[in-house]
């Protein structure tokens, strides 16, 4: 039987709504309401939509969208304006939303995702609008009601729209993770998904393979996590496949996502642009962006994660996990680049993957446990001291457990690794006769573990190694301890 599912392929476009990290709302002087603030306490006549009130433009929000567009390689329109988007819903206080239609601030751009193979997700536009109020629906056995909180109304919202070039849920999730990383790094949003700072709608359709004609588009809303987007896209692809294979047609509509049930559900028929009756907002002037402003904002952009990944991949032979961790934080990346240059200067001879493992495994554990800010890593850990500690470990002067203790102490002391090694009494036992004596003592006081080993339970040797480490106060080398224990046990 022929599998008809192979006839179709998904076409996906994403719309991401990003709450900008401004102090005030988009068109009034109200402060942006903190999360979980008392309802309807951050409001004024403008954001409540009173007749006769006039909006003011938040310049900081404009600059943040420009910054985002430059970071993503988009074209900045020198002339932009705001339009009225008309639709009747209780969360729109004025009965329309101030948004951008014909002249968005940013046109085009791209986001590179590091999938296999790598892919560039092309952007259609980035525009600026105001957020709506928040509705809370209450259902009861006798009646139901809807409460409205106007605090969120008027908050600056940046919308990033892709072209329909995403092929599957994995690419969609990779794109969202990369976009979130870029926007939080350049400082335009706090990016807290639980607080609604980064929300996503997905437009999903299926088309016949190798056909240029797109299928009917379904928009899925109400997704508040990367996991939800991934699951919702996979569910909707399967649902549409089943509909088409059964001979029915896909209805263009808006669907919601039910996280607990893991399924989408129909909400309403999907509107088109003409349904919104866009027209220029008569209360707001055109905005003209000059080259001086663009240059100023361009100079404020930090080095981005994608650029860091490219640099490390081009200059160092590291595994993907190490690259992703090192590039996830600018300060951690800078620490690695600095320490690797010191290592390459000739004084040390540490393999680059070994050095990376120490940073991404051992050092990160220490700075996280001690709550050390990443921007202050070098204030607590001297790169040369870390290199000397790794060399001492590789040369067998101190075992791995002892070196972990020294690393933790490096953050609290100005002493060198050698001084800490002596003061902490962590010099590794190098005398084989001394190690044999400790192993013999561990065997004598742990007869049940010895019996287990002799009865075929080879895992008992790990328990005995642990006892040797305890008796030696961490000075024994675990590998040498196991070798000594096996030698003694096999002679008995």
Core attributes:
single chain; 492 residues; alpha+beta; Arc Repressor Mutant, subunit A; 10-stranded mixed sheet; elongated
Give a summary of the structure in a few sentences.
The chain is an alpha+beta fold. It is 39% helix and 19% strand.
What does this structure look like?
The protein has 492 residues and is α+β, with helices and mostly antiparallel strands. The protein folds into three domains: 4-298, no CATH class; 305-423, no CATH class; 432-491, Arc Repressor Mutant, subunit A, CATH 1.10.10.410. The protein is 39% helix and 19% strand. The chain has 16 helices and 17 strands. It has helices at residues 59-71, 169-185, 226-245, 291-299, 305-315, 320-327, 330-344, 352-369, 377-380, 383-394, 400-410, 417-423, 432-444, 447-454, 460-471, 478-491, and strands at residues 8-19, 75-76, 79-80, 83-86, 96-99, 106-107, 110-113, 119-130, 134-139, 144-149, 156-162, 198-208, 218-223, 253-258, 263-269, 279-280, 287-288. Strands 1, 2, 6, 7, 8, 11, 12, 13, 14 and 15 form a ten-stranded mixed β-sheet that branches. A three-stranded antiparallel β-sheet has the order 5-4-16, with no helix packed on it. Helix 2 (169-185) packs antiparallel against helix 3. The longest helix is centred in the middle third of the chain and has 20 residues, at 226-245. It starts with 7 loop residues before the first strand and ends with a helix. The model is unreliable at 1-5 (pLDDT under 50).
């Amino acid at each position: 039987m022929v599998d008809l599912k192979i006839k179709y392929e998904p076409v996906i476009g994403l719309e991401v709504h990003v709450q900008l990290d401004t102090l005030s709302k988009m068109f009034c002087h109200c402060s942006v309401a903190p999360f979980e603030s008392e309802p309807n306490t951050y409001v004024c006549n403008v954001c409540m939509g009173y007749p006769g009130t006039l909006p003011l433009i938040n310049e900081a929000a404009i600059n943040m969208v420009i910054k985002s567009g430059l970071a993503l390689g988009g074209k900045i329109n020198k002339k932009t304006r705001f339009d009225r988007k008309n639709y009747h819903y209780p969360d729109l206080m004025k009965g329309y939303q101030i948004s951008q239609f014909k002249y968005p601030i940013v046109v085009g751009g791209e986001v590179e995702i590091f999938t296999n193979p790598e892919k560039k997700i092309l952007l259609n536009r980035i525009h600026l609008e105001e957020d709506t109020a928040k509705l809370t629906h209450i259902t009861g056995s006798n009646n139901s009601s809807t409460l409205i909180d106007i605090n969120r109304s008027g908050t600056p919202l940046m919308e990033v729209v892709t072209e329909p070039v995403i092929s599957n849920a994995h690419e969609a999730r990779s794109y969202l993770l990369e976009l979130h990383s870029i926007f939080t790094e350049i400082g335009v949003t706090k990016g807290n998904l639980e607080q609604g700072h980064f929300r996503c709608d997905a437009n999903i359709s299926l088309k016949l393979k190798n056909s240029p004609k797109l299928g009917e588009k379904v928009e899925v809303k109400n997704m508040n996590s990367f996991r939800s987007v991934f699951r919702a896209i996979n569910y909707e692809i399967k649902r549409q496949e089943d509909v088409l294979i059964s001979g029915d047609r896909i209805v263009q509509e808006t669907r919601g996502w039910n996280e607990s049930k893991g399924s989408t559900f129909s909400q309403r028929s999907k509107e088109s642009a003409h349904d919104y009756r866009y027209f220029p907002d008569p209360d707001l002037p055109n905005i003209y962006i000059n080259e001086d402003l663009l240059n100023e904002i361009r100079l404020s952009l930090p080095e981005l994660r994608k650029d860091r990944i490219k640099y490390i991949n081009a200059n160092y032979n590291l595994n993907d996990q190490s690259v992703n961790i090192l590039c996830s934080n600018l300060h951690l990346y800078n620490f690695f680049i600095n320490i690797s240059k010191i290592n390459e200067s000739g004084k040390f001879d540490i393999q680059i993957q070994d050095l990376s493992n120490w940073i991404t495994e051992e050092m990160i554990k220490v700075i996280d446990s001690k709550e050390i800010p990443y921007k202050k890593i070098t204030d607590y850990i001297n790169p040369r001291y870390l290199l000397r500690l790794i060399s001492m470990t590789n040369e067998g002067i101190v075992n791995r457990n002892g070196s972990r203790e020294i690393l933790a102490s490096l953050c609290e002391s100005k002493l060198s690794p050698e001084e800490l090694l002596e003061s902490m009494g962590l010099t590794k036992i190098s005398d084989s006769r001394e190690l044999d004596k400790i192993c013999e003592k561990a065997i004598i006081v742990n007869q049940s573990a010895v019996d287990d080993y002799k009865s075929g339970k080879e895992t008992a040797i790990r328990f005995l190694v642990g006892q040797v480490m305890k008796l030696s106060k961490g000075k024994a080398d675990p590998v040498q301890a196991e070798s000594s224990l096996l030698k003694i046990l096999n002679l008995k």
